[in-house]
Amino acid sequence: MTDANELAQIREAVRALCKEFPGEYWRALDRERAYPEKFVAALTKAGFLAALIPEEFGGSGLSMSAAAAIMEEIQASGCNGAACHAQMYTMGTVLRHGSPAQKAKYLPAIARGELRLQAFGVTEPTSGTDTLSLRTTAVREGDFYVINGQKIWTSRAEHSDLMLLLARTTPREQVKSRTAGLSVFLVDMREVKGKGLTIRPIRTMMNHATAEVFFENMRVPAENLIGEEGAGFRYILSGMNAERILIAAECIGDAKWFIEKATAYAGERVVFGRPIGQNQGVQFPIAKSYIAMRAAALMVREAAALYEAGEDCGAEANMAKHLAAEASWAAADMCVQTHGGFGFAEEFDIERKFRETRLYTVAPISTNLVLSYIAEHALGLPRSY
Ligand SMILES: Cc1cc2nc3c(=O)[nH]c(=O)nc-3n(C[C@H](O)[C@H](O)[C@H](O)COP(=O)(O)OP(=O)(O)OC[C@H]3O[C@@H](n4cnc5c(N)ncnc54)[C@H](O)[C@@H]3O)c2cc1C
User: What is the gyration radius of the CA atoms in the chain, in angstroms?
Assistant: First the structure.
């Protein structure tokens, strides 16, 4: 647990750092679809991206609540943590399931900012959400695994040194349990780029540095297998609660940003001789957004508290992500409406944040999949897929 005083200090420090990266910085990058190198370097230098790496490995050893506060403040300041948020949670797979040698080799270097672990290769074009149907294979040959296949939406692959990769090591028809036969590898992309690994950027509606990656006889040292061969799906699942909580916190930050912008504008824009915010038709949607954001924030807090206590937080992490993503998207829409035509003007940053926050009801998990998780695991209804 991080106490309230410490959390307040962390929030203030993140806000101070983010002040150095105002709207103009993000707008220029957005136009070029360029990666926010300076912003990510500043966050790394300040130690924020190593929040969840324990102190024994050179990290800050902070709690999930503190990590969530960092991500929330980044978004609430108008910045975009999507450029680097994965480093906070992907390293958890190495921390929880890596060997002592792997942890000693990678975690301190990640904490120091010398190695970037920003890429997470799970989704494939054919299998989509049905992860167990993925087709990328890894076949052991002596001291190496030879990897063939393809991933899609492997965000930040171009801006990362390492990629956490999920691939099939035992054919599906040969495994006893549905979830067996997949393995996790920590791929050092610097060694295989152009030698079996090809990265092709995908241009999206927002500036997200995402990519397709292709593996053609890509050789990865066997020592880069994380944990046991065949147990990878479980390892990836175990990191998903952290991912959901942190993304939910980002959505809370986005919602706060939209609400603050809308409130300020509604107070100062005068039409028909009075501030537009004096009209209930304008103030009620802002109030509704505020209520939705506060309610979602409570669920994020509950999920983080359970996570920190080492308890099962699958339902809460999913509900937090769902409520927060819905709240941020509704707040984005409300903010455009409140601003009228100016909501569409680039210099207001609203249309940029609107595009950016749209992602979170789809990725890292789409709304329907959250709902089916809750139906099955919280309500005991039959599995639908
Ligand atoms: C910008 C961006 C960045 C991303 N970054 C990463 C990354 O770094 N690493 C990574 O591995 N992945 C990443 N993803 C992938 C992301 O996690 C998936 O896009 C998301 O999980 C949805 O999967 P899909 O696109 O394959 O949709 P599909 O699985 O094809 O689903 C399409 C739609 O059908 C619905 N659907 C599917 N099956 C069912 C069902 N049984 N019942 C009801 N509805 C259903 C889904 O909810 C969805 O709305 C990213 C995606 C985007 C767009």
Answer: 21
